[in-house]
Specification:
Length: 244
């Protein structure tokens, strides 16, 4: 289905459930994923509607957790007009004033892949994306759709980070960020800087939200999302402010 084809109503779409598998975030837990029929391309309209219901994109697939007896994964987003950077975030913003940012289509780049592979090896060797491969990277982060983008971060002429994101009707959706890992660059908090840049881009485009994907209270790796207050959390079909 091309981007110009009118999307089918969401109620007419088909969805599938995966078989239970080991949860990537909570040890000892099993997870089940609900995903849109792979024959349906994640076209605008369908994607916009499903994002409001907590669906995320990975490559050409739209999915969300659907685990029996567990609702630990919560979809969260930043309401742009209400967000004000805290003291730490302001320091990170100024610390990275020498970094330039460019937005490009979500196409394959050998330079991007090299940075991604090194990031996975150094930061996520214990995760399900290890070991990295070019095919895995292409399938996950490249997509020839007008809404899919990559934000490149440069320190001088050196590529130090890439943030994949989508532009929806009601906000930007942060897909995945990877960056150079070193003692010097770690002090820059490039992951936080990337989110701050996406917040500014949302403001420039007059988009009301930045979607951060799923938040799990018990997951240490996801705690950074709580710093972007006020967060809104999807509670059933309604978005409500997350009270901590």
């Amino acid at each position: 289905m091309s981007s110009n084809t009118p999307p089918r109503p969401v109620r007419d779409l088909r969805f599938f459930l995966t078989v239970p598998h080991a949860c990537s975030y909570l040890p000892g837990k099993e997870a089940t994923t609900l995903f849109l029929d792979p024959q349906e391309s994640p076209v605008p309209g369908v994607y916009d509607s499903l994002a409001l219901l907590g669906f995320r994109r990975s490559g050409r697939h739209l999915y969300r957790p659907h685990c029996e007896g567990c609702n630990a994964c919560r979809s969260v987003r930043i309401p742009i007009e209400q967000f004000a950077a805290n003291r730490t975030q302001r320091k990170i913003w100024h610390r990275n004033a020498d970094i330039s940012v460019r937005v490009a289509p979500a196409r394959y780049s050998a330079q991007h892949y090299t940075l991604y592979a090194d990031y996975i090896r150094q930061r996520h060797a214990d995760g399900d994306m290890y070991p990295p491969s070019r095919e895995q990277y292409r399938t996950f982060l490249t997509l020839e759709e007008p809404y899919a983008h990559l934000m490149e971060m440069y320190l001088g002429n050196e590529l130090v980070g890439v943030a994949a994101f989508d532009q929806l009707e009601h906000g930007l959706s942060a897909i995945y960020t990877f960056f150079a890992v070193s003692d010097t660059l770690d002090k820059r908090s490039l992951g936080t800087f990337a989110i701050l840049q996406l917040i500014e881009l949302s403001r420039e485009k007059a988009l009301p939200h930045l979607y951060l994907g799923y938040w799990i209270e018990e997951c240490r790796k996801m705690r950074y999302k709580q710093a972007f207050a006020p967060l809104e959390m999807l509670d059933g079909r309604h978005w409500r402010q997350l009270i901590r």
